[in-house]
Design a protein that fits this description.
Blueprint: H1 2-29, H2 34-69, H3 71-86, H4 93-98, H5 103-117, H6 122-133, H7 137-147, H8 156-179
Length: 181
């Protein structure tokens, strides 16, 4: 068990520097002027940022209404028999609901869970693993599809939500396996 934790720690430390190094080496091999391409992409990103502001405002208003209405608590109560079945503590349900909607909202929920239960608790481990293994699906769809003016998302929403559910369930099982109290 300790070997698995050590391997995971080393992989998490080395992953991002390795990816950056891989990009630089690939650019060098293909004779791409990496810095110039990066700056061009940053300029394009600014233009896209201006285009997506209306979509962001709409998404943030919808999230605020969802949180203020108490719908998260109602959904949590209705789904508690299912979450009990898979071993998910009911305390992390608000995190599971907020994560597909908002990164900052889910960060706030996770911070509250850390303050209440501690970072080294099973709830803290599950919440932080959920945060890292899922995506802000609705936010991403609003931003990226809005940036290129796509109205019909086809299968993007169901695929994103299925991936989020897989990440949530996997977070519960991995944390229960590695960090059982």
């Amino acid at each position: 068990m300790e070997l698995i934790k050590t391997i995971i720690d080393w992989l998490s430390i080395l992953a991002i520097p390795f990816i950056i190094f891989l990009f630089l080496v690939t650019g060098y091999i293909k004779k791409v002027r990496v810095y110039e391409v990066f700056v061009d992409g940053a300029k394009e990103g600014f233009d896209i940022g201006v285009k997506i502001i209306p979509y962001l405002v709409a998404m943030l208003v919808a999230i605020a209404m969802f949180r203020a209405s108490g719908a998260i608590d109602i959904f949590g109560y209705l789904l508690s028999p299912l979450t009990d079945l898979i071993g998910m503590p009911s305390e992390v349900l608000p995190m599971a609901f907020m994560r597909p909607l908002s990164g900052s909202g889910s960060l706030g929920v996770m911070s509250e869970l850390m303050k209440t239960y501690g970072a080294d608790s099973l709830i803290g481990f599950i919440a932080s693993t959920m945060y890292g293994s899922t995506e802000t699906t609705f936010y991403v769809l609003a931003v990226y599809f809005g940036a290129v003016n796509i109205k019909n998302t086809r299968y993007a929403l169901p695929a994103g939500l299925i991936a989020d559910v897989a990440g949530l369930i996997t977070a519960v099982y991995i944390c229960r396996f590695l960090f059982i109290e």
